[in-house]
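User: Sequence recovery, please. Input:
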């Protein structure tokens, strides 16, 4: 969605040559749920699904100027592309030594994310299921911030993670870029629907609501399935916000009905 939307589309059409490569089977490639062509895209946060897609910005000689893993909102993506163009100017500057270029690359990355507007930072919050994943490996994760008196565990935003990791990789040739380590945050399997269930539903035993919803999500899409799912999720969210309300009933089709 972001690539074909303004302002990114105009910038790509004017200043970039675009290409793609199938990463299926690569060791860093993620695993996603399957979606049909008529299913609508869902809104998500910057950097979501880092194992599934990586958007590289390369200099003409194949040097990596920037890498954006996962989804990025169009305005934020456009700002990152403009930033990559500035790094390209540094790489081409004949008056700078390699050491000077590398130093500017590091400094510019750290300064750039520190100057991000609040809207970009808000759109870059790590998703709940990815936070849970990183919390389980907090001792080795670079995604976790130190505790403060209010929050015992805080997480970096994805824009900070990306720019800090890029700062450690100044002007690396594409063939030598360590994609697996660079994209290593959050769950390897990305399924927005299943992740939503994990975030809003309490843990349950076999045959519980979470399991029934997961089974419903595996059914072929259709209006009936969407209606049942919507009513269940709405009831669950109301239950979460108001624990005194009645728990959601396990909705099942009546005799003769079929979930499409």
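Assistant: Recovered sequence (260 residues):
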């Amino acid at each position: 969605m972001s690539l074909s939307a303004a302002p990114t589309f105009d910038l790509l059409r004017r200043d970039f040559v675009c290409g793609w490569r199938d990463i299926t089977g690569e060791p860093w490639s993620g695993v996603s749920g399957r979606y049909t062509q008529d299913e609508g895209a869902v809104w998500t946060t910057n950097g979501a699904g880092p194992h599934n897609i990586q958007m590289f910005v390369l200099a003409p000689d194949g040097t990596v100027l920037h890498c954006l893993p996962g989804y990025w909102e169009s305005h934020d993506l456009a700002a990152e592309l403009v930033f990559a163009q500035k790094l390209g100017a540094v790489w081409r500057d004949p008056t700078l030594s390699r050491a000077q270029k590398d130093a500017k690359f590091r400094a510019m990355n750290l300064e750039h994310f520190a100057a991000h507007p609040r809207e970009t930072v808000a759109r870059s919050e790590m998703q709940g299921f990815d936070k849970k994943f990183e919390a389980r490996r907090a001792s080795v994760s670079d995604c976790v911030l130190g505790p403060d008196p209010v929050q015992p565990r805080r997480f970096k935003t994805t824009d900070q993670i990306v720019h800090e990791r890029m700062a450690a990789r100044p002007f690396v040739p594409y063939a030598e870029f360590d994609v697996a380590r660079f994209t290593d945050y959050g769950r390897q399997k990305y399924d927005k629907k299943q992740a939503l269930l994990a975030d809003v539903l309490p843990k349950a035993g076999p045959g519980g609501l979470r399991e029934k919803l997961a089974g419903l999500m595996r059914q072929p899409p259709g209006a009936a399935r969407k209606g049942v799912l919507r009513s269940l999720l709405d009831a669950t969210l109301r239950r979460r916000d108001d624990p005194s309300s009645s728990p959601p009933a396990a909705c099942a089709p009546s005799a003769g009905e079929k979930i499409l």
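The chain is about 40% helix and 5% strand.
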